[in-house]
Design goal:
The chain is α/β, with parallel strands linked by helices and 215 residues long. The chain folds into 2 domains: 32 residues, no CATH class; 177 residues, Rossmann fold. It is 26% helix and 24% strand. It has 6 helices and 12 strands. The strands form 3 sheets. It has a 6-stranded parallel sheet, sandwiched between helices. A 4-stranded mixed sheet has the order 8-5-6-9. The longest helix is centred in the N-terminal third of the chain and has 14 residues. It is globular.
């Protein structure tokens, strides 16, 4: 028995479980922890998401599906975007009214080319209300991870309520762990020992989230 096995056995005993390794994680691991904090209606869950997104300094917008093309046109115009990076299967109707030059997400895109882009527009895989987190999984309507890390302005469209869950455990059930997952809680930022906040460190300086009603 290795030192690793001894340590893991002690951890399992401390947690009240069997000392030996589980035969299957689906049945032998205790899953009795809370899956979400409190009980909320669908509307309350969406409101919590909007509140936590704003708390992380994301800019939150709301519109209907029919209003989305005009909303995206307005947001790009207000940002002064002359070019926008577009994932390969972003619905064409979303940017039908927008003027910026499209830079299509391709393997040949260089870092310099993406750095010159003013904005990027993507969909998302799921949004977590309790943490105000947007998750991207590299699907064709979200594109490669790098297109949401290099441009300084990211507009992410979240379909509500279908793509909104209360908690991280609920989000994990929807995600494929083999995909390149990017978890975004507000614009990229860090702070030093003096708590001076600096934005745009390892991702977009500005994150705008559009909550689109599926109704």
């Amino acid at each position: 028995m290795s030192s690793r096995d001894v340590i893991l056995g002690r951890v399992r005993r401390a947690l009240g479980g069997p000392a030996g390794a589980p035969s299957t994680y689906a049945t032998d691991i205790d899953r009795s922890y809370l899956r979400e904090h409190g009980s909320r209606t669908t509307e309350e869950t969406v409101e919590l998401l909007a509140e936590n997104l704003a708390d992380y300094r994301a800019i939150v917008h709301r519109c209907s599906a029919g209003e989305l093309p005009r909303t995206l046109m307005r947001l790009l115009a207000e940002h002064g975007a002359q070019s926008v990076v577009v994932p390969p299967e972003l619905p064409a109707s979303w940017l039908a009214e927008a003027d910026p030059v499209r830079i299509h997400d391709r393997a040949a895109n260089t870092a310099a080319e993406l750095d010159r882009a003013d904005s990027v527009v993507t969909a998302c895989a799921v949004a977590v209300a309790e943490t105000g987190t947007i998750v991207l999984d590299g699907s064709p309507d979200q594109g490669r991870r790098r297109i949401t890390l290099v441009p300084d302005h990211h507009i992410c469209v979240v379909r509500v309520p279908g793509q909104v869950v209360s908690s991280v455990p609920q989000a994990l059930e929807r995600l494929d762990p083999a995909r390149p997952l990017t978890w975004i809680s507000g614009p990229s930022a860090t702070s030093d020992i003096e708590l001076d906040r600096v934005e745009g460190v390892h991702g977009p300086r500005t994150l705008e989230v559009v909550l689109v009603s599926e109704d």
